[in-house]
Amino acid sequence: xxxxxxxxxxxxxxxxxxxxxxxxxxxxxxxxxxxxxxxxxxxxxxxxxxxxxxxxxxxxxxxxxxxxxxxxxxxxxxxxxxxxxxxxxxxxxxxxxxxxxxxxxxxxxxxxxxxxxxxxxxxxxxxxxxxxxxxxxxxxxxxxxxxxxxxxxxxxxxxxxxxxxxxxxxxxxxxxxxxxxxxxxxxxxxxxxxxxxxxxxxxxxxxxxxxxxxxxxxxxxxxxxxxxxxxxxxxxxxxxxxxxxxxxxxxxxxxxxxxxxxxxxxxxxxxxxxxxxxxxxxxxxxxxxxxxxxxxxxxxxxxxxxxxxxxxxxxxxxxxxxxxxxxxxxxxxxxxxxxxxxxxxxxxxxxxx
Length: 353
Ligand code: MRU
Fold this sequence. Notes:
- The protein is an alpha/beta fold.
- The chain folds into two domains: 5-141, Four Helix Bundle (Hemerythrin (Met), subunit A); 149-352, Translation initiation factor eif-2b, domain 2 (Rossmann fold).
- The chain has twelve helices and 16 strands.
- It has a seven-stranded mixed sheet, with helices on both faces.
- Helix 1 packs antiparallel against helix 2 (58-80), helix 2 (58-80) packs parallel to helix 5 (103-118) and helix 2 runs antiparallel to helix 6 (126-153).
- The radius of gyration is 20 Å and the shape is globular.
- The structure holds 5-S-methyl-1-O-phosphono-5-thio-D-ribulose (MRU).
- 5-S-methyl-1-O-phosphono-5-thio-D-ribulose (MRU) binds at residues 56-59, 102, 165, 167, 171-172, 177, 204, 243-245, 255-256, 321.
């Protein structure tokens, strides 16, 4: 089912859409069975959509928040005219607090604030802020194409890969980070098969990654989250390729819960780990992985599946939704600027200089 809210045809990569001065978000909670766009009229609705996983994935959260700032500024200008800067502060704080781990959220809001601060109090802020939000969106797509091709250049010969969560077009402004590498590798004829971890509890792998790869005609098989070690032992997989929500200054990588165990089994099997992420995901203000705020979500997400309780009635759950992979388990971080082999603090600093 597709909603009739949009006037032009929806592109396969369009999960965050600014159209006719309105923001539409593809509701990723409903995929792959229903393609439904939510219309967000105000910044508080955008913040709620981020918290509720309508839109998810670090770069997509950043792009969405940037458009959220535009909506906040539009409301503030209509209501307070010359006092618009102060009038939108609460909305900006709400957006920034929507989810804690993806650094792209704070990064995008800081970029938008910088533009806002430079504007005149008596000037309609919407055109300049919209141009910045569009810039953030377009730059993310361009970065993903660049890092996708760079990451693919690391893959030698024809091999299979394992990916975790969804780091595709849905999780970004478009094209994807880990899936950007996979798409570029597929085009270059270097890819045999993609194994996607199902990624409990939100099933980003089975619902979203499989859906995206299928649409590209890239062969994909799902793995139960615990199956990666056995799959690596069976051979034929040369790379684990994942995205990231925040990379610390020493190269430690926060990503979807389960990435750390995947990296450990990869090292045990001599399989390489590639982290594909734009530089907007690198947080030089965060010294190590221990400093990355890790989001814990409602235990109910783990105790249930598809909205139906599956756990024993008295069971509780520990539900951190990200983990940290130490830099020493990462073979390469690939950004739009280049490849950081065996990342450490010195190499990250040079890369970001
Ligand atoms: O909880 P989610 O679905 O927002 O988690 C997303 C991830 O962990 C992705 O791997 C990460 O944001 C990189 S997306 C390009």
